[in-house]
Design goal:
This protein has 382 residues and is of the alpha/beta class. Helices cover 36% and strands 15% of the residues. It has two domains: 99 residues, Enolase-like, domain 1 (2-Layer Sandwich), CATH 3.30.390; 243 residues, TIM Barrel (Alpha-Beta Barrel), CATH 3.20.20. The protein contains twelve helices and 15 strands. The strands form three sheets. Strands 4, 5, 6, 7, 8, 9, 10, 11, 12 and 13 form a ten-stranded mixed beta sheet that branches.
């Protein structure tokens, strides 16, 4: 069996897909994208095409090594996102070839289903108490929300109080044991992160996410010492070597590699195993589409330290199209009591609606995240 085609597509709201076709008629789908840089990543996939055409798609570990190492320059969001989508598509082909879900080829499942959470509140969070209760009534046992709007390195305590009021509203509406994940989104710098983390303790958050950016990963230990709240991070890291430095730096309790950014299933499975050796949990980042979600669920199925899965159905970014629009087997992605069953179909478990993909690709999106500024005109972290 040989690879004969590598096709890329741009689809709303902000995603990219790759389709790898073999001479035996088997097709695999992947989701290579870096939000805001979709066209760049898909161009990178096309640059990697000479390494793929005419080759045996079953040699996934070799492709992972070649695509990472043979180009001399390596790592980073664009290159690793391109590799991630290709890796997903190759696993999809392999699963279909053996007529089995991918996780069965990666050691088999160590759980029967996966807990998921739902996003609420938008970029500038508001009305989160009511939104969280709606999600609880829909069966979810946990939500995630952005903590705050933009914050200066040293800022006023009225903004801190506003965060506390929002989290208090969720705790009041949903009860003591409902899961609340609070995403600092890299908008907060060390001085205010320590303040916020300490004050949020009283609400027993499930975790705080990206209290500072990983470029300052040495600070996580300091923040961890300031509070008794689990710290999660990792969506902006891209290789096992990035995560090695994070784990060695310490202070982090949950890692969040993205299956469409961090090299795909092959790389993230290794990252998850490294984290397990440090007694650190796994909660893959996935504010993306159906192929990325299915990839996450296949890795979650095999990882003892996987604790909860992000998913983007209903997320504020999804304008025009959403996750299940591209899925023919939508029943396989039903959430019941805040959980989803493991994939059941061969491959990644997604029957992609190619007709819609082709239609969307006729008018490629140009999604960009907003540029925020502080009142003094300086750029703020989004």
């Amino acid at each position: 069996m040989k690879i004969v085609e590598v096709n890329t597509y741009t689809v709303r709201p902000r995603w990219g897909f790759v389709e790898i076709v073999t001479d035996e008629g088997l097709t695999g789908w992947g989701e290579p994208v870096l939000e805001g840089h979709c066209a760049t990543v898909l161009a990178c996939v096309q640059e990697m095409k000479p390494y793929l055409i005419g080759k045996d798609p079953m040699r996934i570990e070799d492709f992972s090594a070649v695509l990472y190492r043979a180009g001399f320059y390596r790592g980073g969001g664009v290159l690793m996102s391109a590799i991630a989508g290709i890796d997903q598509a190759l696993w999809d082909i392999k699963g279909k070839f053996f007529n089995a879900p991918v996780y069965q080829l990666m050691g088999g499942a160590c759980r029967d289903n996966m807990r998921v959470y739902s996003w609420i509140g938008g970029d500038r969070p508001s009305d989160v108490g009511a939104a969280a209760l709606e999600r609880k009534n829909a069966g979810f046992t946990a939500i995630k929300m952005n903590a705050t709007e933009e914050l200066q390195m040293i800022d006023t305590y009225d903004k801190v109080d506003a965060v506390l009021e929002r989290v208090a509203a969720i705790r009041e509406s949903c009860g003591k044991y409902f899961g609340i994940a609070i995403d600092f989104h890299g908008r907060v710098h060390k001085p205010m992160a320590k303040v916020l983390a300490k004050k949020l303790e009283e609400f027993d958050p499930m975790f705080i996410e990206e209290p500072v950016l990983c470029e300052n990963m040495e600070v996580f230990k300091e923040i961890a010492a300031a509070c008794n709240v689990p710290i999660a991070t990792g969506e902006r890291l891209f290789t096992k070597y990035d995560f090695k430095r994070l784990l060695q730096a310490g202070g982090v309790d949950i890692i969040q590699p993205d299956l469409s950014h961090a090299g795909g299933l092959t790389e993230v499975k290794k990252i998850a195993s490294m984290a397990e050796a440090y007694d650190v949990a796994l909660a893959p980042h996935c504010p993306l589409g159906p192929i990325a979600l299915a990839s996450c669920l296949n890795v979650d199925a095999t990882c003892y330290n996987a604790v909860i899965q992000e998913q983007s159905i209903g997320i504020h970014y999804n304008v025009g199209k959403s996750v299940l629009d591209y899925v023919k087997n939508q029943d396989d992605f039903k959430f019941v009591d805040g959980r989803v069953q493991l994939p059941v179909r061969p491959g990644l478990g997604v029957d992609v609606n190619k007709e819609l993909v082709l239609e969307e690709n006729k008018t490629p999106h140009e999604w960009k995240n907003p540029v925020w500024r502080h009142k003094d005109g300086s750029v703020a972290e989004w």
